[in-house]
Amino acid sequence: MSFRNRLKLLITSVIFIVTIAPTKGQQTEQFFLSGTDNENTETWEFFCSSGRNSGFWSTIEVPSHWEQQGFGAYNYGRDYVTYGRSHEFADETGFYKRTFTVPQNFKGKSLELVFEGSMTDTEVKINGQSIGPVHQGSFYRFTYDITDFVNLDKENLIEVKVSKMSSNNSVNRAERYADYWIFGGIYRPVYINAKPQKHISHHAVVAEANGNLEVHLELENVTDAQEIIATVSELNGKSIKEWKTKANSSGSLLIKNQFENIQTWNSEFPNLYLLKLSLKDKGNKTLHEVEERIGFRTIEIKEGDGIYVNGVKVKMKGINRHAFWPETGRSLNASLDLMDILLMKEMNMNSVRTAHYPPDKSFLHLCDSLGLYVMDELGGWQNAYDTESGKILVKEMVRRDVNHPSIIFWSNGNEGGTNKALDGDFDLYDPSKRPVIHAHHRPGNDFNGIDTDHYENYESLLKKFADSTLIYMPTEFLHAQDDGGGAAGLHDFWELMWASKMSGGGYLWVFSDEGLVRTDIGNKIDVNRVNAPDGLLGPHRQKEGSFYAAREIFSPVKIFMEKLPEDFNGEIEVENRFHFTNLSEVKFEAEWVKYRKPGDPISGHIVVDKSQIQSPNVKPSEKGKIKIANLKMMDAAEGLYLKAIDPHGKEIYTWSWRTDAFNDFFKVINSNPKEVRESDLTVTDSLSVLSAGGFTLTFDNANGTLSRIQKPSGMDLSFGNGPVFTYGDQKVSNIETTEDGESKSLTIQYDGHLKETKWTIHPSGWVELNYTYSLPEGEYDYPGISFDYPESNVISAKWLGKGPYRVWKNRNQGTIDVHQNLYNDTQTGSTPWDYPEFKGYFGDISWMEINTAQGKFYIVSENEGLNVRLFDFYGVSGPTSYPELPKGNISFLDGIPALGSKLALGITSNAAVYGPQGETNKMNGTYSRTLYFYFDIIQDQILSHDKTNRFPNED
Predict the structure, then answer these.
(1) Domains 315-553 and 680-939 fall in the same CATH topology
(2) What is the pLDDT of residue 85?
(3) Could you tell me which residue ranges the Glycosyl hydrolases family 2 sugar binding domain spans (predicted)?
(4) How far apart are the C-alpha atoms of 756 and 754, rounded to whole Å?
(5) Which of 283, 635, 643, 890 has its CA 20 to 30 A from that of 910?
(6) How far apart are CA 293 and CA 233, in angstroms?
């Protein structure tokens, strides 16, 4: 079955599991009092105590947060202004009610009312009677036995009182004084479970990699000799084994068996089986039946060594993920959960931490099916539940989630939110005894042999891996506010983590910006200023630059070659960074391409030859070579792409290299046009004027800058006020002119770092700029030259180079191609989240086309390694936005700055703490570069591919 078809089947099956459609026979039957998710809701009557639309009965959709339905008031949890001043804190109470009639076939059955999640204190009455204690805790499934409270033959009334703030202060401190949006209301489904009087009330599975299977059962009302029949089948229904066990009384029962040649579960091959448990009476009649998908796998922490799955040492390429959607808060659906997991898998991640609370059940079902290791976290953001309430919530969390093979760790709270008295409670409900983790930002809080300390720097990583006997696996690192952190610095971190024995990998902070659609301010998205724009994706999962960089960095196929060597023989070194997959199972494709040229109306490239590559036999953690066979294309093509596709048909990554120096550019630049226009060179005391090819360039002799460009049409182009060197002042010391036929040149010499510029205007109209600068030994963020151009005139940019996203020195990943961006004013992490950002540093540029209200103009680089800066932007916002920018607003640079994060030792600008790539550019000596400009629209696509000399499949 194809990967696409598997996904369609998976979506259908998981939505079925989550919605829990009513069933017949002796399975647990379910009747929904609410809708099934945020897109399929039911209307209840509702009364809000304060805030918007309060003080009167109206209606509300369930499940939902009442803030998103227009009630009450908003609070971002870490609101220290209102901390301790409860009269200012949004503290509404919501009253819900609706009538319902129990289905006729529920008669004689045991009835259980289930709440999947309600914020926060929840009190329930049926037909005017309280059905149990108030539940405290927002993120947990809780239940009541309502068999004796409902009328089976007439209408019933359910009333629910939900208090946004808990009467238990430890619950408020653990959940609500936190660094995320907080809400109120019944936000996950509510339903009734109907089971036969004699039934299986709970089951917990231990399925190990060696084929050992244990099922721990709890039975209700089993008073005489009965029987459990257990069946394990493949998901397609093919039975593997069936066996029977006597069940003589209610209470606990252990059944077990051993399986041979079982396919184990891991993140790369998430093999699942179906376990069916049938409770039979003496006459072999089925009394009750439950089904569970199981995966055989074993988790082990070997202290002083590493984390092992099925006996194989693994490292977590992980990320933290809030369960969140802008329009509906933490009320989600299976399709949103699926989208998030597929995005993580696209970034080549293998693990997720459910920060900072258990997720929807559908998310875990999908992690089981698609293969994602899960750290399932108990609530507690820097403050812990008290022991009494924590014991209840640990039990609810573990009993709900215990059978998911994807869960390999339990996390007992976050950053000081750990109540160590609860550590032992996880094992009470998890017979497989998964490791418990303390997710901390304070040294000395290691547990179970794992140090999870948050936001270490590169030097402290080196020290930990060199000296510590603890496995280091940060549960948060490289905080990604705005464009900082995330994949900026990740290359150095991950290479060190991969190479270090004592590394268990780690979890980036965080998956997506927690931007909330505010119903009180015209549905605008609010990220609470600098508190919530921390994602590698935007609120609606818009992909930021770190998304694509992380995909390359985390690729389980590691390619080391950055440039094609001059003597390239087709061999490319590769390392297998899978844990369970041989590279012989990975498909490789090579594409030789020609790039679109300036003047072509479209971007991208043309594939001129495509071939399959023999997959090498390279085991996990070993190195080998890939052989590109069709080297005859080297002289004809302009680029080489290498694509890797995993055993499930998913693209891992595509690497790209240039193969040609683009000599066709310079043939055009130096050619004589059919119509040779008059050329001239004039120097006065204050101005120097060059003209050729219909263009006239005027320079200010006082500072050597370009002051005016007149095009053949007579219209001026407002590009000028440069070159200005990015460091220091410049003063003209000498001006010389030369003529070579119709080509006119102006050489300007300077005192200062910029030593010389030579402008040449050719008969073709192309302008050549050669410049030389000298720098004393030192560190420089952005060495190069700048010009001015009015940002308000700009429409779009097209370029051949890395893209489509902007780069930083320590996040320089990108695909070599012809990319095109429309102008936008997006600052990463802020509205309108219109990506890719138009403004920024763009790397490895061969040519760039700027489209403006004054027409197009072009820049071509004769030398490799050109970075182009476009206009004003920042990487991380705060009291002072970072980083500082060079002079001017269009710059041509031989180096660009790295980007830190807001947690770089508290110094936003200090990217160097994240590793060698974060260090400032070290310069010493004399540097030269040549740029070519064309200050008008290129006529007749003069640099497009020759239409008469195309490859056979180029069209």
Answers:
(1) no
(2) 43
(3) 58-196
(4) 6
(5) 890
(6) 10
Q: Are 101 and 360 in contact (CB under 8 A)?
A: no
Peptide bond into 723 cis (omega under 30): yes
> For the structural domain made of 22-195, what CATH number should be given?
2.60.120.260
- Closest by CA position to 439, among listed 553, 354, 551: 354
Q: Are strands 505-508 and 316-320 parallel, antiparallel or unpaired?
A: parallel
pLDDT at 651: 98
What CATH number is given for 559-660 in this structure? 2.60.40.10
Buried b or exposed e, range 202-236, using 16+ CB within 10 angstroms:
ebbbbbbbeeebebbbebbebeeebbbbbebbeee
Q: What is the dihedral of CA 740, 741, 744, 747, to 10 degrees?
A: 10
Cα Rg, the chain, nearest whole Å: 32
The one-letter amino acid code at 797 reads A
Query: Which CATH superfamily hosts domain 315-553?
Result: Glycosidases (3.20.20.80)
Residue 108 neighbours by CB distance under 10 Å:
10
Long-range contacts of 628-635 (CB under 8 A, 24+ apart): 628/570, 628/571, 628/572, 628/590, 629/570, 629/590, 630/590, 630/592, 631/568, 631/569, 631/570, 633/592, 633/608, 633/609, 634/568, 634/659
Which residue reads 């931490």 in tokens?
Answer: 353
pLDDT at 378: 98
Nearest to 368 by CA among 310, 470, 292: 292
CA distance 376 to 610: 44
Spell out, as residue ranges, where the chain has pLDDT lower than 70: 1-25, 78-89, 661-666, 672-674, 676, 904-909, 939-955
Position 661 scores a pLDDT of 55
Return d(Cα 276, Cα 760) in angstroms, integer.
81
Cβ atoms 886, 893 nearer than 8 A: yes
Containing 463, the helix (H) or strand (E) segment is helix 458-467
- Options 1.10.1040.20, 1.10.645.10, 2.60.40.10, 1.10.1760.20; CATH of 199-294: 2.60.40.10
- What residue segments make up the domains of the chain, in order of their start? 22-195, 199-294, 315-553, 559-660, 680-939
H or E element, residue 927: strand 921-934
CA 832, 835, 838, 843 torsion: positive or negative? Answer: positive
- Name residues whose C-beta falls within 8 Å of residue 798's C-beta, 6 or more positions apart in sequence: 598, 603, 818, 819, 820, 848, 849, 851
Cβ neighbours for 741, distance < 8 A, ≥ 6 positions apart = 763
**CA 501 to centroid of chain Cα atoms:** 26
Enumerate the β-bridge partners of residue 821: 797
DSSP string, 336-397: HHHHHHHHHHHTT--EEE-TTS---HHHHHHHHHHT-EEEEE-S-BSSPPPHHHHHHHHHHH
Q: Classify residue 105 by its DSSP letter.
A: G
Q: Using CA atoms, how far apart are residues 321 and 488, in angstroms rounded to an integer?
A: 19
Q: How far apart are CA 226 and CA 138, in angstroms?
A: 39
The encoded tokens of residue 175 equal 């959940």
Contacting residues for 327 by C-beta, under 8 A, at least 6 apart: 38, 68, 517
Please count the CA atoms within 13 angstroms of the CA of 808 that sit on its side-chain side.
33
Alpha carbons 261 and 52: distance in angstroms, whole number? 61
Q: Say how far apart CA 541 and CA 567 lie, in whole Å.
A: 43
